[in-house]
């Protein structure tokens, strides 16, 4: 079935990224003489339109049946060149890429050595290309609907977008109410708008939407399936018109999952120098929200003469393992400080800070207003708090005065940061989601795919991916909804073609592939006693192929003979 | 576009508009993507690396640019402008002006023979390279441009400005595809769409509004965006940091040039400068290991995912961070001197520099008011487009059916821009769904 | 120049991470002497970072640092600011620019193995007639007595109490007698790295040769350096409070008497802040029958330094007017305690002096935990 190879080889300059280190002309000349190669060319940017046009035109004119591009990582442009090959009439799976940038020009300095290595990578790619077989693109249908894990603002907003586009959305909320952390807030920055004026409306929209089902006191117990067709088992109580139903187990069939599990508030007991829990005068910003909502700022029945805010409590702190900025505390402090000034015009309010990070829309203006309202900003990270009579003393260096101060205060507010929730690991295991070094869920690409994950069909919304304020959370939640809606609206999803396949003649039915597969793709056929692969579940990871003692299971496109052909030419 | 589904219009094909268009198109809706410039890509295509991962900007952007160029559901209209919008949510009637390129799009192969032959070759200020290089009157802004079609700059072409260009058109003679057509006229296209996404991006403040920094006086005072081009492998110096052919030994970066400064009309924080400056400092350290690098800052705003960690990394590379906003830049001998109150040292310091890079403020596009009138949008006091509600409706504009994506609503970094682009797409999907009669 | 200082610190085996500093001031804000002296470690770091350090010779305040390491404990960026001071001190030591009293102490350690100017032969004189065996004979527990308890009269009482307690609990222990030599904890902290290295080179094989699985120290300072800086093999290092807490828990240390007194406790920096041993000393005190234990306000991670560490035993400091120990004894007295319990010979010395100077002798007695335990045997 293998046609006689007619291979086109294309060497990319990537501007100077490759050409400055690798002699692309020499590599091209070298490639021309490799077995099966009909044409070899080099070009400034193979990924550009004229670069791709070269492939298409050559393929048609010269009747190419294999294409090799030596450029960057396949993660970058394999889809681009596969598409170009296909347009030229070459099966996209008979395309092979040699990475002469990340694996060569970027990591070597000597031009001769880099050129020699580029040649080796090209010869290996050509050897594999000659053995590649045509495969077909495949698609599977999508179950309409999405599960949203978490019923905070992120989860609710994402669910509404899914519902508005005509699909069922299921919110799985761990607590007994919707609203998440925002429900605990009094007013929001920078407009000092009472949360009570908009959050109940949002909750009402969610609860009354015909396409949304809410589960409370609920959690996801099990997730099976794959993008387009997940089966999510939820244990909890379904909310219906008549109220909260009995606790039970519910099986939901959906095409996508949105994770919006939120964050954990930093526990200031872990900063013992602040005496939180020891001194009633020391409270968190969250506790301050409640006090501001109740209009009760009194300490021991007295109006405080001096209120101090301390920033970065639990954030920007390597020693605690939280090296990151929590992104909202500067604005929360500015808000609460202003509200104190409004409520108690005679009270002195001081904010101790390291850097003021009021970056959002109207953020800097809000900071200006805080200072104008009489809030004093002093640069210094408070070192400790202790008691002096009825008051507490805040010991801190004012880094501008270059002097250590002992500031007496009646109320000290700790601007506590955000951390990944304790159950992040559970959810990560359930959905096979990786986490970033800071503990939050890891997005597929920090720049261009901020809501996608390593798992197809699973998306991130809100603070479970990292600290965020409300507008950024909402934008990201809707972004996650957009990603989830794509397969739902299309009705189909592509599945990969490079899947594992079993040779029943060789298979001894030992079941090791079944054990090792993280996706549950292979299963033993009870009748024949051999393994069979569900190609829809298979991700082509190859774990089975390397485990199989009789080499009966192989991954299409990465068969041993194809890989060994690469190795052979390299060791020759 | 074969689909019978209702369509959307996306105005601006920077990363926000590209992302919004791709999401809508992937979901099966027809999209008209209108870009004023000859190529898609926007500001991101001008960047060298991106923080904090140091991914090469064009490397991660090009696949998306190629996608919008080839997507069956996207009708890409570059070098075009929206001139009229009528109707309301669900049924907008939009008029788009296609400006004449004087090059036939379907004939041009992008070979560049015309530009080589052009009498103005190497004589026209290259705006894509922020004026650091020169190009011809016929040009593509950058090699990965989509579409890769040459455009004649009507303000630089000798024929178009003077009516005559020697005895024969050099460009026409050189073109192997016979693609050049000076008879092209502007065309008007009318389309019906159910939703509109505005992703018109931002400008940078002219640093001459802060004359104390000597921009425009000293050639070695650059803006951050100019530095991007200087550092980019596809830039005029092929990625070498050279000024007048020489490598700088002392490099000084200045934050908040124009930002947080009501005097310049920019009371707000531009949100990206702290991090791109940290990235620039890293790039200088990477390319010039012995350079002395100083960053002057007021507050270090490294707030995003992995940002504080990146700031930490750059400090560990020996970049000196000094707190204080410099007061002036002047010349002493063959060096520049940056004078600042180091507020932590409590002393006025003078730091010598061979290169000074200004982190200039992100400001609304110069034509924001015109676009606002065209689309019936409101603006916030900072000049950017106003969202329906700053807290819970960050992508809806004040006009139903019109959504905002990216920096036209306010300064944003790339991840936040992409998220907002997708969010606008999600909002538009709801409108499109209802327009199909499902409302 | 920032690179030079960072490099120097690295060579000295210090974990200083100068370049990580964000100038937040957490270090100076918590520095016990930052209000009463000119020392500002945050500012020193900044001067080092922007190449603006002045001539070190004139900076007497560099010797004010007590090496309590509060700054190291609290620095959010893990810069370890105190180690900049140690690096700078080492430069001063190199050039001989050190206060005379510190020079004398170092010379005494070099010649006699103790900083107090006493003869090496007299080191074990306090133990005569107490029936303490030489560790050379082999023992389960090597007790490292330390310089101050060996020579200082007040602290000798603590050493004697320790011997009584260990014997009563049936511990198989021995001491090194005249072979015991200063641990060098303060030597390293005043920046005399050469002498410290010599002490480790000679001390490590000596200590390991005993073959005891456990070493117990009287002083938290000895405990700290042996635990972290000697890399002792096959030997667990304990402060005596940890050891006693273990004996009590195992039922090996029992009390027949009572101490009917109100007692409070002062955390030594080298035991508490630096080694997080907070609970064991309290457990021991609370196990003593009759003791009514009360806490002061500034305890554990927020404890106030007595100003005896980091070479300050040999250097008055620039803040002779207002001692932290003065504040501390008043705070102790205000709790109503009759006894201020300590677990460190330096704390004993600083706080006992403060009680006298502040005229609190009628109300407050400074006692080592060992003495209270011995009293209840």
| Helix-strand category of chain B | alpha/beta
Q: Can you say what the CATH homologous superfamily of the largest domain in chain A is? A: FAD/NAD(P)-binding domain
**Percent of residues in β-strands of chain B:** 25-35%
Task: Specify the biggest β-sheet of chain B.
Answer: 5 strands, parallel
CA-to-CA gap between the ends of chain A? 27 Å
**DSSP strand content of chain A:** 25-35%
Q: Specify the number of helices of chain B.
A: 10
Question: Architecture of the largest domain in chain B, according to CATH?
Answer: 3-Layer(bba) Sandwich
| Class computed from helices, strands and strand pairing of chain A | alpha/beta
Terminal Cα span of chain B: 24 Å
Shape summary of chain B: globular
How many domains comprise the coordinates of chain A? 4
- Spans of chain B of at least 5 consecutive residues whose pLDDT stays below 50 are none
Q: Tell me the number of helical segments of chain A per DSSP (H or I, 4 or more residues long).
A: 15
Gyration radius from CA atoms of chain B, angstroms? 23 Å
Low-confidence stretches of chain A: none
Descriptive overview:
The complex is a heterotrimer of chains A (572), B (439) and C (377). With 572 residues, chain A is α/β, with parallel strands linked by helices. Chain A folds into 4 domains: 7-131, Rossmann fold (3-Layer(aba) Sandwich); 146-263 and 420-492, 3-Layer(bba) Sandwich (FAD/NAD(P)-binding domain), CATH 3.50.50; 266-417, FAD/NAD(P)-binding domain (3-Layer(bba) Sandwich), CATH 3.50.50.60; 500-556, Alpha-Beta Plaits. In chain A, α1 runs parallel beside α5, α2 packs across α3 and α6 runs parallel beside α12. The mean pLDDT of chain A is 94. Chain B folds into 3 domains: 8-99 and 186-201 and 365-438, FAD/NAD(P)-binding domain (3-Layer(bba) Sandwich), CATH 3.50.50.60; 113-174, no CATH class; 205-362, 3-Layer(bba) Sandwich (FAD/NAD(P)-binding domain), CATH 3.50.50.60. Chain B is built from 10 helices and 26 strands. The relative contact order of chain B is 0.16. With 377 residues, chain C is of the alpha/beta class. Helix content of chain C is 42%, strand content 8%. Chains in contact: A-B, A-C, B-C. At the A-B interface, α2, α3, α6, α10 and α12 of A face α1, β4, α2, α8 and β25 of B.
């Amino acid at each position: 079935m293998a046609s006689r190879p007619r291979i086109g080889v294309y060497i990319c300059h990537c501007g100077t990224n490759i050409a400055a280190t690798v002699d692309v002309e020499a590599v091209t000349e070298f490639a021309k003489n490799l077995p099966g190669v009909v044409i070899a060319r080099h070009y400034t940017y193979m990924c550009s339109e004229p670069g791709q046009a070269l492939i298409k035109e050559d393929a048609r004119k010269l009747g190419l049946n294999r294409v090799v591009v030596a450029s960057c990582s396949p993660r970058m442009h394999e889809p681009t060149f596969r598409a170009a090959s296909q347009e030229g009439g070459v099966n996209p799976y008979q395309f092979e890429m040699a990475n002469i940038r990340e694996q060569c020009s970027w990591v070597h300095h000597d031009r001769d050595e880099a050129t020699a290595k580029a040649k080796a990578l090209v010869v290996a790619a050509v050897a594999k290309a000659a053995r590649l077989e045509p495969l077909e693109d495949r698609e599977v249908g999508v179950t309409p609907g999405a599960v949203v894990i978490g019923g905070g603002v992120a989860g609710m907003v994402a669910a509404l977008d899914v519902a508005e586009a005509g699909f069922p959305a299921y919110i799985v909320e761990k607590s007994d109410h919707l609203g998440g952390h925002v429900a605990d807030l009094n007013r929001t920055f920078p407009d000092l708008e009472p949360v009570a004026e908009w959050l109940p409306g949002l909750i009402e929209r969610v609860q009354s939407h015909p396409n949304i089902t809410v589960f409370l006191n609920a959690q996801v117990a099990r997730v099976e399936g794959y993008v387009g067709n997940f089966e999510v088992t939820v244990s909890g109580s379904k909310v219906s018109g008549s109220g909260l139903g009995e606790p039970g187990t519910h099986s939901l069939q959906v095409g996508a999952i949105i994770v919006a599990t939120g964050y954990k508030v930093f526990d200031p007991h872990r900063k013992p120098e602040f005496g939180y829990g020891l001194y009633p005068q020391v409270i968190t910003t969250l506790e301050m929200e409640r006090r501001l909502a109740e209009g009760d700022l009194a300490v021991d029945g007295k109006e405080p003469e001096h209120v101090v805010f301390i920033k970065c409590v639990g954030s920007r702190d390597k020693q605690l393992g939280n090296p990151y900025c929590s992104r909202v505390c500067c604005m929360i402090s500015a808000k609460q400080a202003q509200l104190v000034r409004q409520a108690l015009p005679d009270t002195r309010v001081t904010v101790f800070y390291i850097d003021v990070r009021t970056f959002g829309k109207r953020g800097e203006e809000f900071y200006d207003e805080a200072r104008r309202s009489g809030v004093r900003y002093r640069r210094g990270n408070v070192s400790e708090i202790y008691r002096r009579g009825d008051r507490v003393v805040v010991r801190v260096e004012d880094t501008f005065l270059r002097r250590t101060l002992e500031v007496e205060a009646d109320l000290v507010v700790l601007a506590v940061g955000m951390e990944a929730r304790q159950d992040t690991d559970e959810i990560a295991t359930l959905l096979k989601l990786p986490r970033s070094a800071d503990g939050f869920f890891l997005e597929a690409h920090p720049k261009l795919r901020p809501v996608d994950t390593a798992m197809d069909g699973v998306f991130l919304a809100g603070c479970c991916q990292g600290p965020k304020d409300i507008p950024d959370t909402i934008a990201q939640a809707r972004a996650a909804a957009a990603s989830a809606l794509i397969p739902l609206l299309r009705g189909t999803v592509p599945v990969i073609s490079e899947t594992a396949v079993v040779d029943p003649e060789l298979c001894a039915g030992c079941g090791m592939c079944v054990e090792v597969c993280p996706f549950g793709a292979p299963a033993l056929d009870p009748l024949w006693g051999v393994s069979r692969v569900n190609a829809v579940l298979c991700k082509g990871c190859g774990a089975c192929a390397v485990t199989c003692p009789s080499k009966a299971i192989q991954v299409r496109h990465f068969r041993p003979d194809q890989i060994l052909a690469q190795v052979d030419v390299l060791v020759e | 576009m074969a689909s019978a589904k209702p369509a959307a219009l996306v105005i601006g094909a920077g990363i926000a508009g590209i992302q919004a268009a791709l999401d809508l198109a992937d979901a099966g809706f027809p999209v008209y993507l209108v870009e004023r410039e000859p190529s898609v890509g926007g500001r991101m295509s001008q960047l060298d690396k991106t923080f904090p991962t140091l991914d090469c900007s064009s490397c991660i952007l090009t696949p998306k640019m190629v996608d919008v160029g080839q997507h069956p559901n996207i009708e890409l209209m570059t070098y075009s402008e929206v001139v009229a919008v009528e109707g309301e949510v669900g049924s907008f009637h939009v008029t788009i002006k296609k400006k004449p390129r004087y090059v036939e799009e379907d004939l041009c192969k992008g070979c560049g023979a015309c530009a080589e032959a052009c009498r103005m070759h190497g004589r026209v200020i290259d705006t894509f390279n922020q004026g650091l290089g020169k190009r011809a009157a016929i040009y593509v802004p950058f090699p990965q441009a989509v579409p890769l079609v040459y455009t004649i700059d009507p303000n630089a072409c000798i024929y178009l400005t003077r009516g005559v260009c020697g005895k024969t058109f050099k460009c026409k003679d050189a073109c192997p595809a016979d693609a050049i057509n000076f008879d092209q006229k502007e065309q008007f296209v009318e389309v019906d769409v159910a939703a509109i996404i505005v992703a018109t991006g931002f400008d940078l403040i002219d640093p001459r509004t802060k004359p104390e920094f000597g921009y425009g006086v000293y050639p070695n005072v650059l803006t951050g965006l100019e530095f991007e081009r200087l550092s980019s492998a596809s830039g005029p110096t092929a990625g070498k940091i050279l000024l007048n052919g020489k490598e700088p030994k002392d490099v000084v970066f200045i934050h908040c040039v124009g930002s947080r400064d009501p005097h310049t009309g920019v009371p707000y924080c531009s949100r990206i400068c702290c991090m791109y400056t940290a990235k620039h400092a890293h790039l200088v350290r990477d390319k010039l290991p012995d350079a002395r690098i100083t960053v002057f800052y007021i507050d270090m705003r490294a707030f995003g995912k992995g940002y504080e960690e990146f700031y930490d990394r750059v400090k560990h590379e020996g970049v000196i961070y000094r707190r204080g906003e410099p007061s002036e830049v002047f010349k002493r001998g063959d060096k520049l001197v940056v004078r600042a109150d180091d507020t932590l040292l409590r002393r006025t310091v003078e730091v010598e520099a061979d290169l000074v890079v200004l982190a200039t403020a992100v400001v609304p596009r110069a034509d924001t008011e015109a676009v606002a009138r065209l689309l019936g949008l409101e603006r916030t006091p900072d000049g950017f487009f106003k969202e329906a509600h700053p807290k819970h409706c960050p992508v809806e504009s004040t006009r139903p059916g019109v959504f905002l994506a990216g920096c036209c609503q306010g300064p944003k970094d790339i991840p936040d821009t992409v998220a907002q682009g997708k969010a606008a797409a999600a909002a538009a999907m709801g409108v499109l769904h209802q327009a199909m009669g499902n409302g | 120049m920032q690179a030079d200082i960072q490099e120097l610190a690295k060579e000295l085996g210090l974990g200083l991470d100068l370049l990580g500093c964000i100038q937040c001031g957490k270090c100076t804000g918590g520095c016990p002497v930052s209000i009463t002296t000119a020392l500002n470690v945050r500012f020193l770091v900044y001067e080092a970072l922007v190449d603006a350090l002045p001539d070190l010779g004139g900076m007497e305040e560099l010797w004010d640092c007590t090496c309590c390491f509060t700054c190291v404990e609290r620095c959010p960026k893990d810069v370890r600011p105190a180690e900049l001071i140690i690096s700078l001190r080492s430069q001063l030591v190199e050039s001989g620019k050190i206060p005379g009293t510190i020079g004398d102490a170092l010379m005494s350690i070099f010649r006699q193995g103790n900083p107090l100017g006493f003869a090496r032969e007299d080191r074990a004189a306090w133990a005569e007639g107490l029936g303490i065996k030489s560790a050379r004979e082999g023992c389960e527990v090597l007790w490292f007595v330390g310089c101050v308890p060996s020579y200082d009269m007040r602290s000798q009482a603590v050493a004697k109490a320790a011997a009584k307690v260990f014997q009563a609990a049936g511990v198989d222990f021995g001491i090194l007698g005249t072979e015991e030599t200063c641990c060098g904890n303060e030597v390293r902290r005043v920046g005399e790295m050469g002498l410290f290295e010599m002490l480790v080179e000679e001390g490590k094989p000596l200590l390991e040769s005993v073959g005891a699985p456990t070493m117990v120290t009287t002083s938290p300072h000895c405990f700290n350096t042996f635990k972290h800086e000697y890399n002792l093999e096959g030997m667990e290092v304990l402060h005596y409070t940890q050891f006693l807490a273990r004996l009590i828990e195992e039922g090996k240390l029992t009390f027949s008497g009572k101490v009917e007194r109100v007692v409070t406790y002062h955390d030594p920096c080298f035991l508490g802040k630096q080694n997080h041993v907070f609970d064991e000393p309290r457990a021991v005190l609370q196990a003593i029958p009759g003791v009514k234990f009360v806490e002061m306000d500034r305890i554990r991670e927020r404890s106030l330094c007595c100003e005896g560490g980091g070479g300050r035993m040999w250097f008055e400091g620039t803040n002779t007017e207002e001692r932290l120990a003065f504040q501390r004894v008043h705070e102790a007295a205000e709790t109503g305690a009759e006894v201020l319990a300590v677990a460190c010979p330096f704390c004993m010395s600083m706080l006992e002096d403060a009680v006298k100077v502040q005229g609190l002798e009628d109300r407050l007695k400074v006692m080592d935990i060992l003495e209270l335990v011995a009293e209840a045997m």
